[in-house]
Amino acid sequence: MRYQFTEDLVTGNPLIDSEHKTFIQAANNVMDNLSDGTDSAAIMGTIQFLSNYAKTHFKHEEELQKETGYPDIVAHKKWHRNFETEIETIAKDITTNGISSAAVVELTRKMSILLNHIRTQDKKIALHISKSS
Asked: What letter would DSSP give residue 9?
């Protein structure tokens, strides 16, 4: 399954949207590697990039929230930390047990959750940022 950066994911904030596009591409790279038989080391490198990029992106979002006094920053940060932990858990599972259909299903599920988060929560942040500017 490939993910697309569709109109419903556009927040209107150039930094957030650019980073979301990169995040979606990284997720596509992982899924492509999982489905085309790429060796485990390459897959792990791609998953590690995805995990690291999530942390970088979330940090940028949180900085914007802090700068503009976003009222729901605590809950948003909590969501970010939980998502980071879940991605790391998937990576550890693949490292320990190899690539499995369960890991692929779980990664797909996490991406669906992330896309829903972008459609709802990140759009709220971008609207708040634009009103604060």
From this structure: G
